[in-house]
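Below is one protein, fold included:
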Amino acid sequence: MSIELLLALPVMLPLAGAAFTLLLRHYTKLQLWVAILTLASIFVVAMVLGYYVTLEGVMVLQIGNWTPQLGIVLVADRLTALMLLVSSFVTLAVLIYSSAQTVSENIERTPVAIYHPTYLALTAGVSMAFLAGDLFNLYVGFEVLLAASYVLLTLGGSASRVRAATTYVIVSLLSSIIFLAAVACVYAAVGTVNLAEMAVRLDGLEPGIRMVLELMLLVAFGIKAAIFPLSAWLPDSYPTAPAPVTAVFAGLLTKVGIYAILRLETLLFPASQIQNLLLAAAALSLLIGIFGAVAQTDLKRVLSFTLVSHMGYMLFGIGMSTQLGMGATIYYVAHHITVQSTLFLAAGLIEHRGGTTNLIKLGGLQKLAPVIAVLFFIPAMNLAGIPPFSGFIGKVGLIEAGIQYDRTSGWILIAISVLTSLLTLYAIAKIWNRAFWQEPSDEIIERDVPLPNVMGGATAAMIAFSLVLTILAGPIMTYADEAASSVLERVPYVSAVLGDEAAGQLEYRIDDAGHRLDGNGQEVDE
């Protein structure tokens, strides 16, 4: 069996699992075990793919042996393998967590039988987005995960969830329309939607046309990634969903958008003319998001605004277009997927014990629930960037890249990044003071609800995974730097998909310092 066939499994396994669990709709426990086995298998496949791309480089699977220009192409490089590995672990841990939590407060009205099939369908969409080698199937991956997210967001059918989902659906449909229109415009301009072939042909377009296409795709991906000013929908949509659903949404769905932006700005539009626009969006996301977090009094809303804010860190690295910045971004994406998901799971534990996420009504959980206190404290410090956690390592990497970038915009972003980190620590301290230190109400004291071992264990597993990112930061950062070098160079990707001759037609590549070079290695003056 060709090892390339493994590329199909992260998509096919969850789709098959979704179909199988739907047939088992009357056997909820059996559904759960099928889903767990499916996600565990994807995690193993992701590890194997990571091993092979490290040894052999970019892997390509042409579905049905069609040519890349006509057929569906799945592509995996170091970046793809890392995203699959982290996302599969997170989805597995969150699924186990959800098995011990009622999916909705109103179980009688909740169609529990569709939870596992929908969850697996969402996983398939995420995997498809990471593996897609053409723009249209990237769109299909987005639509699959968005369709599944609509169902998960409204489980229980409460008024608040339906109201929040309405905003989410409208915004998602808008971004999908823009994305589909962009796909059509790209095809009209270059005659293909294959990413590798687009990379070759887009280089020869007029700068104005290139910029229009880039901006259309950037707006579509920016909405999905919740980049300011396209992020207003997120803080109102996520907090109403159950904790496991919110954890997956916060950890993964926005990072799929960031992944798409990263591919857009490296493979298709290297060192584009809108770098300063990306850096401005990064700065505004950092500031507006964290100011919103500081002003909130609900735990989930605080975490939702910090999510918007920390997307700015990732956009900072992408906007610089240097190997150091891109490597730090890739590491930070892996860190943030894990830590943000863990914090929303911890928020679910707090809600389970305290009966609310309103910080004004909470209190005394340090004494009443010391295990929950520990499970919240560690990822919270990680998010705030306290050394020696992975959040600190990722931020230091981005700041170092900003120093090397040595431009006014880079220095401004460094200052804003440091300020955002301090304000994140302030927001975390506010949560800790109100939820854990202030005097508890009689209602919370009387609400002696035991912590399910499965929920606590799944959250602890997520924390352990985030600590692995800290303990193995050296080799993981090296891996991220090599992944950054590959995506910036573009040649390995195009060569693996189309061959060396096509890769030789690339007019531009990016050097380690982010300079745009022509085929002769000379810097291009834009």
The longest helix spans residues 159-190. The first strand starts at residue 59 and ends at 62. The chain is about 75% helix and 0% strand. The CA atoms of residues 58 and 77 lie 5 Å apart.
